[in-house]
Design brief:
With about 500 residues, this protein is an alpha/beta fold. The protein has two domains: about 130 residues, no CATH class; about 350 residues, Peptidase S8/S53 domain (Rossmann fold). It is about 25% helix and about 25% strand. It has twelve helices and 25 strands. Strands 10, 11, 12, 13, 15, 17, 18 and 21 form an eight-stranded mixed sheet that branches. Strands 3-4-2-7 form a four-stranded antiparallel sheet. The chain has a three-stranded antiparallel sheet with strand order 1-5-6, with no helix packed on it.
Length: about 500
Amino acid sequence: MPNKRTTERKPVPRRPLPSTTRHLGACARTEWLEVTLVLRRKQPLKPAHAPLDAATFVDRHGADAADVERLRAFAKAHNLHEQHCDMACRTLRLRGEAQAMRRAFKVHLGRYATEPGGRTYIVCTPDPARPDPAVIAVLGLDARPIAHPHFRFARAQPRISYTPVQIGAIYHFPEGNGSGQNIAIIELGGGYRTADLDQYFRTLGLALPTLTALAVDGGGNQPGSDADGEVMLDIEIIGALVPRAGLYVYFAPNTDQGFYDAIAQATHHGNPATNIISISWGGPEGSWSADARSAMESALEDAASLGITVCVAAGDSGSSDGDSNGAPAVDYPASSPSVLGCGGTRLIASNGVIESEVVWNEEAGGEGATGGGVSAAFPQPVWQADAKVPPAPGGFKGRGVPDVAGNADPLTGYEVLVDGRTQVVGGTSAVAPLWSALIARLNQLRAAPIGAANATLYQADGKGFLDITSGNNGAWQARAGWDPCTGWGSPDGAALPGLFGPRRR
């Protein structure tokens, strides 16, 4: 007869953990944990011609009060204590001892460490059982790092580098300073020092933008780690290109719970209301549990329905997205149909004029390559029907990634200041804030939010873009029109305003 205690102590997680991960044993029975129950909407979202206002959204598509009351009874029966309920974010936050969580959600909870020197975290096996049909996902019992920042410092001597202001001029960004726009920047680690930012913007002849740090789930502005490069890159690109926009940095733990809660907070509780969300973090689609991905997708759909444009980096590890077997894979949340997926190019320009622009692929030299490909999780949206998206491996007709692109090669990268040092940085992490700033200028120009932009961009069939037709990201080759390396291409900022027309009434 097998040893039951041993079997329970070291289960095999369904989703692979990093090879450097070490199992430390079972989670202590009396350790206190918090979970986020993500609930279904009161009514399903329907395609809308105009963004919903916040009050209408909560009334129609927030959590259902009957669902909440039923789950409160469930929590009480399992000795779990309500911490917070948010009808707009559709979340019920519960706290309880590990032994109560095990019984309520039918999981084993093990503690793991990523070596050398990594933090410890809880992993649950199997994925948590949903206690009620109203629950989309139970987040927080698996606290493994879910995402990577998609930035890269140049390892070799850069061929050329640019300030964000120069990049905006090269791509002919329309006039604008972002006045009236509020941009949420999602960060899952790292931080910034105000003195560094003040110094950086002074070198560009700009004042420090209006900047607010917001803590989610115990996260915070904590400079001093490698992730500072991500945080500073995002803020400096956006702040340089739209210096009058309000920048709101949401710091959350690098877990599926933290990621969801940060997006939901930015979407529903931005004060003032959020217009754009910039996300430069992500992980391979296969590294997400199906429930966690469904919860995230519901948050991104909420954002789109409220007229928020979400710009997401497509990844820096080529067509495999860093998968050890080299098979084609895409990064999530860039593969979400609700976002603008942002890929990367290598840009050579002189005196403000583009001399060449090709797909970013420096993998041979260890400098990365743009992510891109075809989703294995999301079917092809109707607006991609005429884009000639190839099938995913296995023949699945999936959502093609990315939608758009911009300079990302660290060897042709961005001049930024990180922790007191001027450095050249690249990665698709630079492209998400670049497009966020561009969307802010377009919103300002038309005095109304563009919102979910993909349907309009694909209908334009390449108008408004500089087509990238040379290069590859591994498995996928650039071509005329849309491709799984750079989407429609890099922005022709002078042509883009005409795609979206005057203010909607």
